[in-house]
């Protein structure tokens, strides 16, 4: 079985986000594998471990800095990786990213494509689903449980408002992972050592047959700002006989909720 | 440039999602500024009695894709119907309420039409005839504004609870019954079952009041206290990652960077310290109230009103006072 996993390198969730000259100031950023993509890598590993014969290939759009994230995925246990490295790739939009990954994945042919449900920097939640449509495959997004049936048929669960939807489809397919699907493993020391020998192939726009015109962004950012500052209001302490009435008062007269 | 807008009116349990009516309201505002028209499309089966509500909320035309093959949701089948409607009617903006279904469907429509998409839109403005779309990034730590390049169609995912439903317009809409030509076998992915929790629960993303518990709740049994409080407000119970990871409450209640983003009128944080990742999920709430034993908890910097105290004393007293008020 061949499994493709799409992984993105993103800024750590702890970074302080600041805006400089109308753009995000990333000078002090540290980077991680997108947390939702880790659930995808982990699921691929579990499928491999339970089934026997599977090859896991990680696809990442990024430059040299992204190699660190790719190595992390290889250290977890993926077999090899493809780094999609081209300045054009970094200037495109969600449509472009879906196209780049779909073209790269299509070159080989996979039974299963696993992605995280969204990248925690741009928060678009489009890539995995776009790949599915481009390749003419079924998709289930935001999956937190998978049950495998016969002949590549599966049922995947996803949370909806007030319940859980169970979706049925058949491989080949794209699944995007959310929290709760599994608990991603920490790479072992052995895994880290072995990852250094695993191949990372690089492909640019030309290798994928994509031109600058193909990749021109259909949407562009016109500005970035910080959210309105929330100022701390009143904080009280002491006996509940004193504090709770003040809360009621706040809810009645200021928030006008009571 | 005028906008020929198509709004996807999601139907769940025989009802149109409020988020869809909100999207129609937002669409109407755009058309007021730049010209154009607002239509809606419903996909499923047994839909005809719902069209009036869409007209009343601002849709001038309602497309009905009413067919048994569409009675269960399928992203690829629904996307095909909507993409065909867009192409046949020269629509240049498709608004999809960013609910669970919308998040699953929107990108598929975008890819089918091979067009751009702005997800999770929290604001729309028109400057010099150009429409810009607001989209939070870095889990809401920053806000970006997008524009569309070129004149093609744009897919816009609108966040629920942000835009307003229009006052009843009393208008009627032209109803167009679409011819559906989809073979059952061609549907790729399809919903086959719906699992509901034992007790009907209001989703945190749909509640106007969220009562949320964190590590300070000390155990799963104490969430009952928050459920009772939420019930008084007709609200929902939320939780921090700590409480969910401890197994005290299911993941679906988690508010935060790796949980849900909520914008209720009131967010009551009980025993939640307020780490950056949690703040990402609730900082846009209209009013924030915090109860925590630790005066240095970061949540107090965000709260409009805070009580430094033992939540096991504060909450029962709060409930008591609320019950007195309703008498």
Provide structural commentary.
- The complex is a heterodimer of chains A (258) and B (327).
- Chain A is α/β, with parallel strands linked by helices and 258 residues long.
- Chain A is built from 8 helices and 15 strands.
- In chain A, strands 11-10-9-12-8-1-6-7-13 form a 9-stranded mixed sheet, sandwiched between helices. Chain A has a two-stranded antiparallel ribbon with strand order 2-5. Chain A has a two-stranded antiparallel ribbon with strand order 3-4.
- In chain A, helix 2 packs across helix 6.
- The N and C termini of chain A lie far apart (59 Å).
- The mean pLDDT of chain A is 96.
- With 327 residues, chain B is of the alpha/beta class.
- Chain B is 28% helix and 29% strand.
- In chain B, the strands form 4 sheets. Chain B has a 7-stranded parallel sheet. In chain B, strands 15-14-16-17-18 form a 5-stranded parallel sheet.
- In chain B, strand 2 and strand 3 (15-16) form a beta hairpin.
- The longest helix of chain B has 17 residues, at 18-34.
- The termini of chain B are far apart.
- Chains A and B meet through helix 4, helix 5, strand 9, strand 10 and strand 11 of A and helix 3, helix 4, strand 7, strand 9 and strand 10 of B.
- Strand 14 (219-225) of chain A pairs antiparallel with strand 10 of chain B, so a sheet runs across the interface.
Question: What's a quick, concise take on this entry?
Answer:
Chain A has eight helices and 15 strands. Chain A has 258 residues and is an alpha/beta fold. Chain A starts with a strand and ends with a helix.
For this entry, give a set of tags.
heterodimer, A: 258 residues, alpha/beta, nine-stranded mixed sheet, two-stranded antiparallel sheet, 8 helices, globular, B: 327 residues, seven-stranded parallel sheet
